[in-house]
Amino acid sequence: MTDLPAPLVSAVVPTIRLDTWFDEALHSLLGQEGINLQLIVILDGVGDHDHHPWMDDPRVTILSNEHRLGVGRTLRKAMEHAEGEFVARLDADDVAKPGRLAKQANYLASHPDTVAVSARTELINGQGAVIGELPFASGPDVRPALLLQNVVVQSAVMFRQGDYRAVGGYEPMRQMEDYHLWLRLAQRGKIAILPDVLAQYRVHETQLSLGAKPFGEHIVKVLNERRNLRRSLGTSALAGMTKDLIWAGVQYLRYYVLVPAKRRLRKA
Q: May I ask the CATH architecture of the domain 8-205?
């Protein structure tokens, strides 16, 4: 009996700057074992930059936007170069824990009804110390939870490239492009969250912003796909509308109350 070849995983990492956190993010992917890796780095309006050792790794494909295009357009461009059956995401200041890619690829290979898989995710500070964990429950099918909030961490997710293509990929949105994609993928099959802690999400001062606005085209598109997923899962219209109202209310609360309050505390 011969061993099956290790799967090809395309990992996509966009960035607007080159710094030590970005180097750490890439090294956490380049050190993964049990898979064949294609690492797609896309520089979104970075401009002139120094040479970094990871640039010499033959597994790394480097793309560049002369002018900043935003996350949605940048990810869509990067995905045009993905060759793997499975695609993993990591943000520029986050970290993939050892074994993450192999565990997720093996899960997708053995669960053909699952279109994407995430994992439990630690919170780390600027120095890399663990300060908590994102409060999303693990399970083999978290699609019902997606109707209340985005429980799939972009820096912890792996999805099938075939399903990504089938739903049209990342939309060229500047905000909520990840949640919008998960909602569309969820209409094709299960989304799982593994019980293993496989990613680290960095919390830092420069990250603190008002984030996604609670109004605009991205909100309309997300609400539309939430309704489509609700119908796909057979959730009642009343329950779905209630969750939509809660979700929309939370967006306004976060934008106008919670984040400004955190800013004031930081300055105090």
A: Alpha-Beta Complex (3.90)
